[in-house]
Structure formats: structure tokens, C-alpha cells
């Protein structure tokens, strides 16, 4: 547990499955004790499945979960073991729903680590995303594979905040763009992550906002992505709220073109154009 703060130090004991489930309304110390025990249970193969489920479902109650997961001895190794254990099932197309759910819970915990500002650089330096690429390369359409791909995209999406420029460069490359737009799962997940980033970018990073707009604009070059993008485009991009944060005419022009393209491609009585009050 190198570099683990004293408040996060934990003793190597295991609790019975289901004995500890955090709940709203309990004290911070109680929640932390619950998180510590569940993290320890991850290293016990007999208790791991239940611990994965409880931690993934209750992770919002554990504000220090990310550093606890990263710095606790053997925990990340246990999560990676869960991931690589199903690789043979991917190649043989024998993945069961139970296997998929279990690995998705492990991926949810990795997303927690990827989201945290303190553990994100360590996560990237360890090249943990490389373990997720086999999931993204599957082409089987059954539900358990779809969940696995979407959850993996969620982990990678958590890293977009530090890699939006790289994502933009990938999208500008024809091969990278075709890969992103090959399935609706990919471009919808990207659109959702970009939408989540807009609010913070508005006030704190006009440069990031510029890259977000360019990524959205590039998505409109694909007809399928453009046709559903109105569902995922933040209202602040549509009604002119972000205009005052844009620093150049080129980005403003791309935003106007983005909204016009999405409006033209959208279907139904409520079009994007109805919200364009600030353009």
C-alpha cells in the first residue's frame, strides 16, 4: 500500500459475503470502513464477486474509493485478473451474461480510478486502458458483449478530459474516424462523454471547449452519427450560452455549422432549430 494515507490504511481481514453494504445516512467513517473491507474482499477469490457488485453499486458513497483501490496491495491486480480471465471467452464467443456482469463491475471500479484526478495519471502511466481494447474489438451483437463494450468505453471516456486533443486528432484521421463510427455504441458513448465535459469547459477551459466542438463537428460527417446527435448535444451549445467563451471566429463558425447539420438531420416535431435563440 505504498503512499496510502494513514486514514486509508486497512488490516488484512475478510468479512463474510453480504456482511457489509454501505448505505446513505450513515457516517463518513462508517462508509469508509465499509469501503475498506470490501476492497480487501476483492483479494479473496471466494468473496470477490459480491465485493465487486457492492462496490460498483455503492461507489458514490465512498469519496476516497479511487485512491483506496489504487494503493491497496493486490487490488488492481485482482481487477485485471477479472478482465483477462474472460479473454478466452471473447475469442470463442462463449461469454455468458454472468461473466459479463462480473467484469462490468470490475470495469466500473477502474472507471472510478480513471475519473479521480490523483489516480488518473497513475492509471495512464500503468497503461491500464490496453487491457480494455480486446473488449472494444469484439463484433458480437448479443447483450452481454454490448454491455462489455459500453462499460469499457465508459472507462476510456473518463480519460477524455485529459486527452480530448488526441481524440480530435484520431477523428480527423480517416481510419480513426471510421473506427469510431463503425458502431453506434462507439459514437454515442463519445457524444455522451463530450456532453458531460461541456459544463466544466464552459467556465474553466475555453481551449477544451474548442476541441469538444471540433469533435462534435467531425461526428456530423457521418450520416448515422449526425442523425441521432440531437439527442446528445448539450443545450448550452445550441442556445448560444457558450458563445461568450469562444475565442475565435473559426470555432464559432464550426459551432453554427454543427447545429445546422444536426438540425437538418434530426427527425420529429422538436428540432434543434427551435432552441437556437443565441445564434
UniProtKB/TrEMBL annotation:
PANTHER family found in the cross-reference section: CCR4-NOT TRANSCRIPTION COMPLEX SUBUNIT 9
Protein name per Swiss-Prot or TrEMBL: CCR4-NOT transcription complex subunit 9
Organism encoding this protein: Eleusine coracana subsp. coracana
Any one GO cellular component localisation term in the record: CCR4-NOT complex
Transmembrane segments: none
Any Pfam family the entry gives: Rcd1
GO aspect biological process, one term: mRNA catabolic process
Signal sequence, renumbered to the chain: none
InterPro entries recorded: ARM-like, CNOT9
Amino acid at each position: 500500500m505504498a503512499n496510502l494515507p494513514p486514514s486509508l490504511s486497512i488490516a488484512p481481514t475478510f468479512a463474510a459475503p453480504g456482511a457489509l453494504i454501505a448505505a446513505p445516512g450513515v457516517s463518513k467513517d462508517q462508509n469508509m470502513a465499509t469501503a475498506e473491507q470490501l476492497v480487501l474482499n476483492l483479494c479473496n477469490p471466494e468473496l470477490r464477486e459480491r465485493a465487486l457488485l457492492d462496490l460498483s453499486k455503492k461507489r458514490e458513497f465512498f469519496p476516497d474509493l479511487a485512491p483506496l483501490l489504487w494503493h491497496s496491495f493486490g487490488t488492481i491486480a485482482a481487477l485485471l485478473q477479472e478482465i483477462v480471465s474472460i479473454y478466452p471467452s471473447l475469442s470463442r464467443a462463449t461469454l455468458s451474461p454472468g461473466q459479463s456482469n462480473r467484469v462490468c463491475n470490475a470495469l466500473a471500479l477502474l472507471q472510478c480510478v480513471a475519473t479521480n484526478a490523483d489516480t488518473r495519471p497513475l492509471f495512464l502511466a500503468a497503461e491500464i486502458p490496453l487491457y480494455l481494447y480486446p473488449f472494444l474489438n469484439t463484433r458480437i451483437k448479443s447483450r452481454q458483449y454490448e454491455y462489455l463494450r459500453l462499460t469499457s468505453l465508459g472507462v476510456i471516456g473518463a480519460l477524455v478530459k485529459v486527452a480530448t486533443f488526441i481524440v480530435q486528432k484520431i477523428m480527423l484521421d480517416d481510419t480513426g474516424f471510421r473506427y469510431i463510427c463503425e458502431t453506434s455504441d462507439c459514437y454515442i458513448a463519445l457524444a455522451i462523454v463530450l456532453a458531460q465535459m461541456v459544463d466544466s469547459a464552459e467556465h474553466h477551459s475555453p481551449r477544451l471547449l474548442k476541441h469538444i466542438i471540433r469533435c462534435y463537428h467531425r461526428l456530423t460527417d457521418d450520416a448515422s452519427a449526425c442523425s441521432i446527435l440531437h439527442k446528445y448535444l448539450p443545450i448550452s451549445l445550441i442556445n448560444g450560452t457558450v458563445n461568450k467563451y469562444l475565442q475565435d471566429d473559426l470555432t464559432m463558425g464550426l459551432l453554427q455549422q454543427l447545429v445546422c447539420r444536426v438540425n437538418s438531420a434530426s427527425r420529429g416535431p422538436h428540432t434543434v432549430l427551435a432552441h437556437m435563440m443565441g445564434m
